[in-house]
Amino acid sequence: MRGIAKSNAQVTIKQNGYVIYQTYTPPGPFEINDLNPTSSAGDLEVTIKESDNSETIYTIPYAAVPILQREGHIKYSATAGKYRSNSYNQNSPNVFQGDLIWGLPWDITAYGGMQYSNNYRAIALGLGFNLGMFGATSFDLTQANSTLADGSKHQGQSYRFLYSKSLVQTGTAFQIIGYRYSTEGFYSLSDTTYKQMSGTVIDPDTLNEKDYVYNWNDFYNLRYNKRGKFQANISQPLGEYGSMYLAASQQTYWNTNNKDTLYQVGYNTSVHEIYLNIAYNYSKSPGSDADRILSVNVSLPISNWLSPAVDGRTATNSMTATYGYSQDNSGHVNQYAGVSGSLLEQHNLNYNIQQNFANQNNGENGAVGLNYRGTYGSLNSGYSYDNNGNQQFNYGLSGALVVHENGLTLSQPLGETNILIKAPGANNVNVERGTGVKTDWRGYAVVPYATEYRRNNISLDPMSMSMHTELDATTMEVIPSKGALVRAEFNAHVGIRGLFNVHYRNKPVPFGATVSVPTEGTTQITGIVGDSGQVYLSGLPLQGIINIQWGESAYQQCRASYQLPKSELDNAISYANLECR
């Protein structure tokens, strides 16, 4: 999700009337790529609140990619409860809904669903097609019978088409192209819960701001129900010349010429590590003037010039200087300059410092921000000011608590699909997938936003392990289904690493003999004898017994005891000569 801020701004995203995301951004173009909508239905309302309290509001249609399911697999859900709204002007009827997705042969998916309440009955049926090299598409039809606030009864249909495709040869990604057409008698479940045919969704008695200015999203009118909705999101890499993107959407209504329109186009490129971004936004909503804004942004990677990468590795700290220019259709010009970057080993502490200059008596303003992403959650804070004496502090804390069969694990905010790492003994180890993610004191961690139905490689960084911790494998592969919490389990050995020369009757024990060391519980440490009777074992206690066997007879097995001084805890590997008896 992209947009352009004219000043230090608060960006709020709502779905179905509820805030699902909020952040603060400096002037210029911004991109939100960690948004996880709470529902697969319901457009996203984006509000950009500038430092002077002016607001830009536009709606982005939300739709998942074409619906597909593996052959022979069935996915279903059923929900019952009360309809919950964020508007004082809506009722809370009892609601039941269910859906089913069935993977059929020939790369076809059949799906359907229904919704039922006192004043609403709807049923939907559709088909999804995996077209292979031509992408994926789906088509569905919804039939609804509705009773509105004035007692009038309506019935209608809504038709939806979705298409998604990536062209490998050109790199073009049609992330989503969709169109929905609804007949005049079609209404949604939400429409039937309103107490009146028109009004406001905000209760005036609850407003804290006396001078609150209503915007078009604060009103509704059921006589102007939705008609046609088009949406497209296309990106195109241009090789050494950069990349560009285009996003467009338009919503029309019955009984009025008003419509919601949004166009976003941008171009990105870099020349000798100097990054250039050009973006243009156009938005028009009923009851408001069109908002046009052009932004140009230039970034200079200071840290790359001061501390070039060594052996392909980037520096722990990064710093970028930025200059930007934006202008809207009202003649407001804003220029801004700043420095941003990241600190710490995993680049999980981000900072930005920015100073802005504007015309038309808007004066100057500045901002400082910090964002930290850690094992147990995310923390952000900021400070901004303007030449009118206004100052603003903001802060936020977000995270998640995952309950599983092995206990509780704190994590960063979750996505729809997530991965639980289980590595008892490997505590405080960096997870290579996930900024700021480490295993906790028990060896557990959660990696959010996994890719469903695809191979996800989860790696623990061996360089961040303690000297006496070793894993059988540092990388695991999992393939989660949508909405799942899957486990990636690592076997850790905690203890001394020992390299022993073992002799039996004055000769090295045979090559390939099996080695085992009993430990507490039912587990044991195992290994194989190498050349010249050498045995490497990890996770050893300071003293113990090593069992070696190279045959079935009593003369083809022996035991060697060892005892190491505590000073060996300071060594990466301990060495000893042992006699097997």
Automatic annotation (TrEMBL):
Residues 501-566 form the PapC-like C-terminal domain. It comes from the Bacteria. Coiled coil: none annotated. InterPro entries: Fimb_usher, FimD_plug_dom, PapC-like_C, PapC-like_C_sf. GO terms for cellular component: cell outer membrane. Pfam families: PapC_C, Usher. One of its GO terms (molecular function) is fimbrial usher porin activity. One of its GO terms (biological process) is pilus assembly. PANTHER family: FIMBRIAL USHER DOMAIN-CONTAINING PROTEIN YDET-RELATED, OUTER MEMBRANE USHER PROTEIN. This is Fimbrial outer membrane usher protein. It comes from Escherichia coli.
